[in-house]
Design a protein that fits this description.
By secondary structure, this protein is of the alpha/beta class. 55% of the residues lie in helices and 12% in strands. The longest helix is centred in the N-terminal third of the chain and has 34 residues. It is globular, with a radius of gyration of 36 Å. Keywords: Cell membrane, Membrane, Transmembrane, Transmembrane helix, Transport.
Length: 876
């Protein structure tokens, strides 16, 4: 039987509609997008818990107290797993799609109930709409409306409408015919009969249809995440694409909570809007006794409305009048930092506190956003080496912190010395006679109760005391070095000094204690403490490249002993928790110091592009090279003042959306082979910006421990070894289609092997499992790919050239891109990456871990200073 080209006819019809009625689709798109934006603005504006309270009041009105409490708990859970914004996007989609569905479905149902011909005509159409797989509706949706919210809403309306139409028709047809005849007998017009008799009696059935329509809308909205619909659908789709169990479960549980809430509320709405429902509700409330009466009590509509309005006004008031109440507002005197965040760590030593809060104040005045956190010295150095802390100002080198510097110096930068020279010592009150040096402590343990009061056990001075000083002066068996904290040591000194009791404490210079108390620094004739340290500013590796202006300031930062001790004293006078107030008071007494320490002229801020403020829309596939380069360009563009937005798509949606102008640019066009079918179909609406990577290759790879398999021809007859499977990737990719249509047939493997469809992360997960067990496995791969640096793999040779010519990776854009973003277009035209650069970028993203792509990219950029100027040069 000859093939009927039904699909081709449908495609031609869709193309015809798109070509001749685009004005209509544009109008629909604007209306739907406007409705969505309005609803989303309302839902996204309030504080999450306040909106949860409003939704709980509605649940109380419709269902009772217990459902209200459960509703609030459910929405609070969504907020706590950081899916609130996505949930509100999904709820907005459902409400818009549900409202349009009801507006269309109910009149159609009424018309069908009153006209047998219309009912007969609608029935097969509704059957078609209801039984067609939901995914199919996305295809014409993106053809007519591009990618984003609108095609998701339209596809949802089509999918969710049938039950609304059917249940409306059924409800009206089930109204007792004698009641309708009685109404007619009394001279009631057909319109009034419909409104006053048929609809009220059919309302329970109609509301059941509304409930089903909304639930179907929710299920479809999640699927619409595949075409950029946003919301929880995008979370679930991203989780599937990356095999992220945690994200998938969190997105899924948020969907479940929304579904349960919408199902229960729409199901209960009938009791509030229909006479029969209100009568049943009143009967149920009257029959309740005891505690059940309280639980089943529901507020009147007016009371519930007042509650919702009050909460809404509170939410609006908080948004209008609320603000950051940290109480430490600083006006930037020169916006050098442009809001850039700098993480400062410090040890709870007085000079560390003083210098850190001094720089916090200075950086805020220069437009930065410093974040402060105190650490134990070991944790501070470890955190800096890991890149979690940007800078600290209290590294005592070369002696005190020598062990930490030796361990981590390859991951740190020495930004310079700001105080020189310090000294470490043991001190006693001056009223303690005959104790002038460490030698004098020998034999006097009874005077000091056998204790020397120390500080934090991880401090370098404590290690020197334990390893050098006590053994050097033969004090080990006589004295115990008490471990504690700097604050504890100073408290003990204050108590003992007030009572005139002998006490020996570990101290250092400079320190404000020497100005508050009369103390004797015990001499160190044997030099056990070593030479005096300098106090250094230390940054994490790459800090100078990331924040060159701060690094420059730190290299010239100096404080004298008088300045430092007076700053410490000002902070002490300000009191606990008021360090910055103390710094401000000190700066008022030292006018001009901020400008001296951090001159704003020649700030060295990253130059902005000519089209700074432009907001290009960038699409990407969940492929390693695309994720890495997309986030790289996002970082570079933001540094140039652009406001890029990025979103993940599958290959087909990407090309369709870009062709329709919904996406401006993407960086992973494998041409001329792998994505040829998409390029040929859409090229009239696209622009080839040019290659940035040359040459790629497509291949099948096996672990190197698999012997005697060096080429695709060697796979013949070895299906048992690989369990008859070649582990593939996304079925829509060009490589998979080429493999199935050409490569397997060329090597006579099509009947011997099955190519499994997977997401790329799933393929890599299978490779990792098999590699760990030393099991044979054949996977679909491509070059460049970081897997070749992680595993020892053999690229199977392709002597028959079945995979075709090598591809280049090219940047592709919508045809309007060169004019709309001319500066960005110029950058891309001249952008190139080497295999080593791309491999190291992908590896940095992998090393950063799931959800930390931006951190991995930034770490790579830190290791490649000047990359922003290289990729996006701007004239000064």
């Amino acid at each position: 039987m000859p093939r009927i080209e039904l699909g081709s006819w449908i495609r031609s019809g869709i193309n015809f509609l798109r070509d001749h009625f685009q004005w209509l689709f544009d109008f629909i798109s604007k209306v739907v997008q406007g409705m969505y934006d309005g609803v989303h603005d309302v839902l996204a504006a309030p504080n999450p818990l306040l909106l949860a309270g409003i939704l709980a009041v509605l649940a109380w009105w419709l269902r009772g107290l217990v459902p209200a409490v459960l509703a609030f708990a459910g929405f609070a859970l969504i907020d706590s797993i950081q899916q609130w914004d996505e949930a509100m996007e999904t709820l907005s989609l459902v409400l818009v799609a549900g409202a349009i569905t009801i507006v269309l479905a109910v009149p159609l149902g009424i018309w069908a109930s009153r006209n047998r011909a219309v009912s007969a005509l609608l029935r097969p159409v509704l059957d078609f709409m209801q039984t067609m797989p939901a995914f199919v509706y996305l295809i014409p949706g993106i053809f007519f409306f591009g990618v984003g919210v609108v095609p998701g809403v339209i596809a949802t309306i089509v999918f969710a409408m049938p039950p609304g139409v059917r249940m409306t028709e059924l409800g009206i047809r089930q109204v007792d015919a004698e009641l309708v005849e009685a109404a007619d007998a009394f001279g009631t017009t057909p319109r009034r009969t419909l409104l006053r008799v048929q609809l009220p009696l059919a309302l329970p059935t109609i509301m059941a249809g509304v409930n089903q329509a909304i639930m179907l809308a929710l299920s479809m909205v999640v699927i619409a995440g595949m075409v950029g619909g946003g919301g929880l659908g995008s979370s679930v789709f991203e989780a599937i694409s990356s095999v992220d169990v945690a994200l998938g479960f969190e997105g899924g549980i948020a969907v479940v909570i929304l579904a349960m809430y919408l199902d229960r509320m729409t199901g209960a709405l009938n009791q509030r809007v229909s006479p029969l429902g209100r009568r049943a509700l009143a009967k149920q409330a009257a029959s309740a006794v005891g505690g059940l009466k309280v639980l089943q009590w529901r507020p009147a509509t007016s009371v519930a409305m007042v509650g919702v309005i009050v909460l809404a006004l509170v939410a609006g008031g908080l948004n209008i009048f609320g603000g950051d109440d940290d109480g430490q507002k600083v006006t930037a005197t020169a916006n050098v930092g442009k809001g850039s965040t700098v993480k400062l760590g410090y040890i709870n030593w007085d000079e560390g506190v003083a210098s850190t809060y001094l720089w916090k104040e200075i950086l805020e005045q220069r437009g930065f956003k410093p974040q402060l956190q105190t650490y134990d010295v070991g944790a501070l150095f470890t955190g800096m080496a890991a890149g979690d802390i940007d800078m600290q100002t209290d590294a005592w080198l070369p002696a005190t912190h020598a062990s930490y510097w030796k361990q981590y110096k390859d991951q740190l930068e020495d930004l310079g010395t700001w105080y020189d020279k310090t000294s470490l010592e043991v001190a006693v009150p001056s009223y303690v006679k005959d104790v002038k040096s460490l030698d004098d402590l020998k034999g006097k343990a009874g005077t000091f109760k056998g204790k020397i009061i120390g500080i934090e056990p991880g401090a370098g001075e404590m290690k020197i005391m334990k390893n050098d000083v006590l053994p050097g002066y033969d004090l080990n068996g006589e004295y115990t070095l008490v471990k504690g904290s700097t604050a504890g040591m100073l408290s003990q000194l204050e108590r003992s000094y007030a009572k005139k009791e002998p006490v020996a404490v570990t101290l250092w210079s400079p320190h404000w204690a020497y100005s508050k108390y009369k103390l004797t620094k015990l001499a160190d004739p044997k030099g056990a403490f070593g030479k005096g340290d300098g106090i250094h500013t230390i940054g994490r590796k790459g800090f100078s490249q990331k924040q060159p202006q701060i690094a420059k300031w730190m290299k010239h930062f100096k404080l004298s002993e008088k300045q430092l001790t007076s700053l410490e004293a000002a902070i002490q006078d300000a009191g606990k928790g008021k360090q910055q107030e103390g710094v401000r008071a000190w700066l008022k007494k030292n006018p001009g110091l901020v400008d001296k320490l951090a001159p704003a002229g020649g700030a060295g801020a990253v130059a902005k592009g000519k089209q700074a403020g432009a907001a290009p829309r960038i699409g990407y596939f969940p492929w390693d090279e695309d994720i890495a380069t997309t986030y790289l360009w996002k970082n570079v563009l933001e540094k140039r003042g652009y406001k890029p937005s990025i979103k993940q798509y599958d290959v087909g949606s990407m090309f369709t959306g870009m062709s329709a102008g919904q996406i401006d640019v993407e960086f992973d066009g494998w041409l001329p082979v792998a994505q040829k079918q998409y390029w040929d179909r859409y090229k009239k609406n696209l622009v080839d910006i040019g290659p940035w990577y040359d040459k790629t290759s497509l291949e099948i790879a096996v672990p190197s421990y698999v012997k005697d398999v060096k080429s695709l021809a060697d796979l013949k007859g070895k299906a048992d070894k690989f369990k008859g499977k070649i582990i593939g990737i996304e079925p829509g990719t060009g490589e998979m289609q080429l493999l199935k249509s050409t490569v397997l047939k060329e090597y006579d493997l099509d009947k011997e092997y099955e190519v499994t469809n997977n997401a790329s992360p799933a393929m890599l997960a299978q490779l990792e499992r098999s590699y760990a067990k030393k099991e044979p496995v054949a996977v679909v791969l491509w070059t460049p790919h970081w897997a070749y640096s992680k595993y020892q793999l053999t690229k199977l040779a392709d002597p028959k050239k079945a995979f075709g010519a090598n591809n280049e990776i090219r940047s592709l854009g919508h045809k309007s891109f060169p004019k709309k973003y001319s500066e960005f277009y110029g950058w891309l035209k001249n952008w190139h990456m080497t295999e080593q650069e791309l491999a190291s970028l992908e590896q940095a993203v992998q090393d950063a871990g799931k959800g930390n792509v931006e951190k991995g990219v930034q770490k790579w950029m830190d290791a490649h200073p000047g990359i922003v100027d290289k990729m996006a040069p701007v004239s000064s």
